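Most newcomers find our protein records easier to grasp once they have seen one. The structure tokens are whole numbers drawn from a learned vocabulary of backbone shapes. The record below serves as our worked example for the rest of this section.
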Amino acid sequence: MDKYECTACGYVYDPAVGDPDNGIAPGTSFEALPDTWVCPQCGVPKDLFVKVG
């Protein structure tokens, strides 16, 4: 699965890790994240993330 980077702060969402602090289980693809999910470091919406790798 692809990783995605926040263009505002550089946080990288890794599907293998998920975002357990915000209820996102490991193995959750970026595309499967709810539209309400935001960057856990700076709070920007997921449309400000770009695919990396």
